[in-house]
Predict the structure.
Amino acid sequence: MSNLRFKAVEDAFKKKAVIVSPPEQSTSKYYGKYVFNKEQMTKYLSKETLEILTDVIEKGKTLDRELANHVAAGMKMWAMERGATHYTHWFQPLTGGTAEKHDSFIEYTDAPGSLVREEFSGKLLAQQEPDASSFPSGGIRNTFEARGYTAWDPSSPAFIVDDTLCIPTVFISYTGEALDYKTPLLKSLNAVDKAAAEVCQYFDASVKKVITYLGWEQEYFLVDDGLYATRPDLVLTGRTLIGHESAKNQQLEDHYFGSIPTRVQAYMKDLEFEGYKYGIPLKTRHNEVAPNQFELAPIYGEANLSIDQNLLIMSIMKKIARRHGFRLLLHEKPFAGVNGSGKHNNWSLGTDTGVGLLTPGKTPEENLQFITFIVNVLLAVYKNNALLKASIMTAQNAHRLGANEAPPAIISVFLGTQVSAVLDKLENSTSEEAVVIDSKQRMKLGIAKIPEVLLDNTDRNRTSPFAFTGNRFEFRAVGSSANCASAMIVLNSIVAAQLIEFKKTVDAKIADGFTKDKAIFDVLKEYIKESKPIRFDGNGYSDEWKEEAAKRGLDCETSVPLIIDAYTTPATIQLFEKIGVLSERELLARNEVKWETYTKKIQIEARVLGDLVLNHIIPVATKYQSVLLDNVYKMHQIYDKEKALKLSAHDTGTIEEISERISSLKSLIEDLVSARKIANKMEDERARAIEYHDKVLPYFDEIRYQVDKLELIVDDELWTLPKYRELLFIR
Ligand code: ADP
Ligand code: MG
């Protein structure tokens, strides 16, 4: 039998780096080449058009057809000059990733001398009705009735991929419900802008707008594509369902920040050239903790744009990986026993006057503002910790969270010693001390003296899912394959709702005759007390923390289908409806999609696991068993019985072990199939997801255990699936 595994391993070892020569200019010369950004707009749009469009983008004015026509004309010219022949509305369905359907620019024409002309009108730019009936909608959109349509989001610039002009859009049902991530994201950004700008008025009346910033850190694995092709589990599920740990993996900690293998280095460079052409400000690249694991991070930017760029780079990464003979794994946990991948979401708010609201300031006024925002975020996260967890929870991410490498499946906030000390001081100060008449006294309280070193805060706690890191919060529980919007919608919304509440309470106190400062201090003091249980600076991986968190009343649920329930509690529905981000109907529908997706993922994995065991593992183990049997048989031919028994004792033991493991596997697979059948009969999406979690999923570990034991005893020559040591060490 030819063993594809050995061929693939040999080929992988022979592969050389694919050196792509850099563009001849410096980065700044080709940066943003394929993006219809401000600079390009200035060249291709009239001054008047650009002015109105800027108002649409910056002030949220509505886009009329005439303006759309002008913009479309300029955009078409720009795109055609860069080789575009097609256009697409590029949107973010609930399946994750992005979706697009390409249409050519051509239309018939009566004009003499040609049959077709290129056409791209404002109508086509502004709105489209893709046949979207096969995107998940959680029952909002019946396949036979209401259509969904996409509508241009002018706040994210159009760009060209290959020959196609891509127009970032929202995706909504005919009846106006969001079927995507972008719609509620934009609403949540708007909500937090309004609520935060109002609060800023206490400190600086010139603030008109608050911008949400996001800087993501994308972790990923690369695997040689030949090896990948021989692992059906990687191909079909994005992760290895079986495979014994390599004798060496990450225990020496020699991969993190180590030198990047040349093949990978070439890939990263190529990826950066591409990313820069799309105006994605890629800044950092390095090895991550696990072998074959890497990270990519841009300079942070406005959240909506930053999310689009993350989605775009994820698809570019996939393409470029193939050019270099790799496959990209964005799965949160592709390999057992080594770290999984996350996508830290560095989140902050800043004013249009250039002040970071989570940055310790220089003046007492700025610092009171800083503390105000920190404390409100803290309380928002505390009150909604279950919801925030739901925003990042998926079948894939569940494998990563709670393992000894990633944040636990409990949300807590790390503030670091300095900010903690300030809050403690504030909490314990008497009202007289807290009420500050002049800035000098406020200094006494320590608020004005939050040291600037905070900005280079090295007081880092890697085990915290939500950590303050000097000028931002770093939400680390987000999964590597996720659309960041899911987490950002929730974070923005809970903070917006909290800030509205804060403003209301403070205003009421002022109306009662309190000074502004006293009103703010009093409310903050209350908030600091109330939000205490969410603060945790210790080791989030420890078992003591799990106990402690439960005592504090934090959400400790670990079952994904139940975690998702947090989206539809009365309090959550009220919160989202009040700030106009998602309606009850949308929330219910979106949960249906989440449960359905969860079930499908586990269902596919269960099938693949069954196939692997029945078609790969058992046949190979049987083959090896018969080699051993043959050996034992021959022993008995040559030696007398007693000696033969003695000499073949080891083989006989192995033969029996193989038999036992094979029969365990057979019955486990049968049980797995029956459990699936029962689950599949359930009509209700939630009930089915729960059944998959409770009754199907537990077989995975048991099956894997048996398979991985067999991997250790079966002759390496016979094993057909690349092993961890082969998959995980790119040379
Ligand atoms: P680390 O791995 O130490 O967390 P990185 O440098 O890899 O840090 O990534 C930090 C990310 O945070 C980058 O994307 C960076 O641009 C972003 N960032 C820095 N300051 C802010 C801020 N004020 N708001 C949002 N993101 C920020
Ligand atoms: Mg980080």
Q: What stands out?
A: Residues 213, 215, 217, 284, 297-300, 344, 346, 348, 356, 471-472 surround adenosine-5'-diphosphate (ligand 1) (CB under 6 Å). The radius of gyration is 29 Å. The chain is about 50% helix and 10% strand. Residues 416 and 459 are 6 Å apart (CA to CA).
